[in-house]
Design goal:
73% helix; mainly alpha; elongated; 95 residues
Length: 95
């Protein structure tokens, strides 16, 4: 695992979640996604310790697991991409 790889994936994750903000997302899903987006945005940047990233990525994972559907196909694609990014980040952190 390189820190650079993890940080790049975290930035990509934050962008995917941010992209759902412009979509007509169902209210309950919007709450979970919004919280996940805030957590992800808070761990972007070179000054964030890897231990903090690891802890908060777990939180993002739990939040996204609550989203069954957004009610919008495009937003669903962004959430699916974000979920895959979380899995990749967790895998890199475990390496």
């Amino acid at each position: 695992m390189t820190e650079t790889d993890v940080r790049a994936l975290v930035e990509e994750l934050a962008r995917e979640l941010e992209a759902t903000a412009e979509r007509p997302v169902e209210r309950t899903a919007s709450r979970w996604i919004g919280e996940a987006e805030a957590v992800a945005a808070g761990i972007v940047g070179p000054d964030v310790e890897m231990a903090v990233i690891e802890e908060r990525i777990g939180h993002v994972d739990r939040l996204l697991s609550e989203v069954e559907t957004t009610g919008d196909p495009t937003a669903d694609e962004h959430v699916n991409a974000a979920t895959q990014l979380v899995e990749r980040i967790l895998q890199k952190l475990d390496d």
